[in-house]
Write a structure and sequence with these properties.
- With about 475 residues, the chain is an alpha/beta fold.
- The protein contains 14 helices and 22 strands.
- It has helices at about 45-60, 65-80, 85-95, 100-120, 160-170, 185-195, 210-220, 230-245, 265-280, 300-310, 330-345, 395-405, 420-430, 460-465, and strands spanning about 10, 15, 25-30, 35-40, 125-130, 135-145, 145-150, 175, 205, 225-230, 250, 255-260, 290-295, 350-355, 370, 390-395, 410, 410-415, 435, 450-455, 455, 470-480.
- The strands form 6 sheets. The chain has a 7-stranded mixed β-sheet, sandwiched between helices.
- Strand 1 and strand 2 (about 15) form a beta hairpin.
- The longest helix is centred in the first third of the chain and has 21 residues, at about 100-120.
- The protein is globular.
- The termini are far apart.
């Protein structure tokens, strides 16, 4: 039996509430189209209460000793461990991803919370030797202030936790607006933190029209920092809004990760790992491999192995046994996939498997592999964010690197090769914030996660992800 769905509410100043707007939106299961619940939307007055609460909460939390902050955050991690199964099942109902992926995402999010809980105790400053006798120069790291966070729907646990845990670990309060399409996980995370003893106002969770909520919150002078995960277009818009009050920003935006496969690599292993990474979460992953450039001598072997992996996937409701790929988040994404496929075919590409939606209930699209795709096709230039994989051949190392770097995105990139000179050229030459060579694993709680160029700036994860929630202050003290 499926566990009960998470009660949908706003969290403002320690109290769960339906808000004052009287407006709600349905939350839909993308596998069935059925409504899971009605999500309340915040009114401007609710947002103002959240801002005031975050301002008060910051004064409390920043003065809380780091060892006590760690105790509370670690307590929340233990509660999430205990509640993992029902939270993961509701994550699957919101998002559609297979339950095994939801479990893995929740476990990663819990690890993130534990890592920041511990690392927050190490927000060290330093003493700088002075040029004048008797003078002491102290460089201090302190929390930047109340934080605003806005996150995308594709990873309801990870996207939320990276921001919440980083802010709380640094001693900041935070107002977060998760996606209205996948709200249950953020609410469950907030309940665990509240049950673990997080003071009122330190974490506030709101929902609403994204443009209205972001404009209202960012215009306030209360918050000092904006952290956003989402599209390039929206990220640029939020940065412009933040400029009026000089709020710092961390922007984790779109990507279009190239995969370079050389003939001397273990081509079959490269195909297997690349396909697993590509079709995870039905391709709705910002760091998903999304354009496959294969040395001409190996393109046939790679393509055959990749197609076999795609055809072995079982598509269905994420809660059903044996399902390895779920639906897209909504009907709108089906049309996008269809457009990518038809455009590629119009440019001479071949549909090697898939290429169309599955059934007439739910938002299912077949795992799709396209061969002989040229760079002029839309899918080689626009982030697909879905289960469509274009494969293209290259002839030289220089060509491969040039084509990998030709887009303005720079979030993630991958490569498979054995030759030492090739490996060095790839590690030096590929322009991306994260590069995985002979491995698709580029994201852990303790390593920085972020991009360059149109993929944004700043990092989440690692010590870099803590530092973005801090500011630096110098104090000089002369002996009297």
């Amino acid at each position: 039996m499926t566990n009960p769905y998470e009660p949908l509410e706003l969290l403002i100043d320690g109290a769960w509430t339906a808000g004052t707007s009287g407006r709600t939106v349905p939350v839909l299961d993308p596998a069935t189209g059925q409504a899971l619940g009605a999500l309340p939307l915040a009114a401007p007055a609710d947002l103002d209460r959240a801002l005031a609460a975050a301002e008060r909460g910051f004064q409390t939390w920043r003065k809380t000793p780091p060892i006590e902050r760690q105790r509370i955050l670690e307590g929340a991690a233990r509660l999430l461990d205990e509640r993992l199964e029902p939270i993961a099942r509701n994550l699957t109902r919101d998002m559609g991803k297979p339950l095994a992926e939801a479990w893995a995402e929740m476990q990663f999010a819990i690890d993130v919370l534990r890592w920041y809980a511990e690392e927050g105790k190490r927000m060290y400053g330093r003493i700088v030797p002075a040029r004048v006798q008797g003078l002491r120069q102290m460089v201090m790291k302190e929390p930047v202030g109340p934080v605003l966070a806005f996150v995308a729907w594709n990873f309801p646990a990870n996207n939320v936790m990276r921001k919440v845990a980083g802010a709380l670990g640094a001693g900041c309060s935070i107002i977060i607006k998760p996606s209205e399409e996948t709200p249950s996980t953020a609410i469950a995370i907030a309940r665990a933190l509240q049950d673990a003893g997080l003071p009122d106002g330190v974490l506030n969770v709101v929902f609403g029209d994204p443009a209205e909520v972001s404009a209202h919150l960012i215009a306030s002078p209360v918050a000092k920092k904006v952290s956003f995960t989402g599209s390039v277009e929206v990220g640029k818009h939020l940065q412009k809004l933040a400029a009026d009050t000089l709020k710092r920003c961390t922007l984790e935006l779109g990507g279009h990760a190239p995969v370079l496969v050389f003939a001397d690599a273990d081509v079959e292993r490269a195909a297997k790992q690349s396909a697993a990474a590509k079709f995870r979460n039905a391709g709705q992953v910002c760091i998903a491999p999304s354009r496959f450039l294969v040395e001409r001598a190996a393109v046939g072997r790679f393509t055959d192995a990749f197609v076999a992996e795609a055809e072995a996937l079982r598509v269905g409701h994420g809660l059903d046994d044996g399902v390895t790929m779920g639906p897209l988040i909504g009907e709108r994404r089906i049309a996008v996939m269809e457009d990518f496929v038809s455009d590629a075919v119009s440019h001479g590409a071949k549909v090697l498997t898939g290429g169309a939606r599955i059934g007439n209930q739910g938002c299912f699209f077949a795992p799709t592999v396209l061969g002989d795709v040229i760079d002029a096709a839309r899918i080689m230039n626009e982030e697909p964010f879905g289960p469509v994989a274009p494969i293209s051949a290259f002839d030289t190392l220089d060509e491969a690197i040039t084509r990998a770097n030709r887009l303005p995105f720079g979030l993630a990139a991958y490569a498979f090769a054995r030759d030492a000179g090739t490996l060095r050229a790839l590690s030096d030459g590929i322009e991306a914030g994260m590069v995985g060579i002979n491995s698709p694993v580029i994201s852990t709680p303790e390593t920085p996660f972020g991009g360059i160029g149109d993929s944004g700036y700043g990092s989440e994860g690692g010590i870099e992800g803590l530092e973005v929630f801090t500011r630096t202050r110098l104090v000089t003290e002369m002996q009297g």
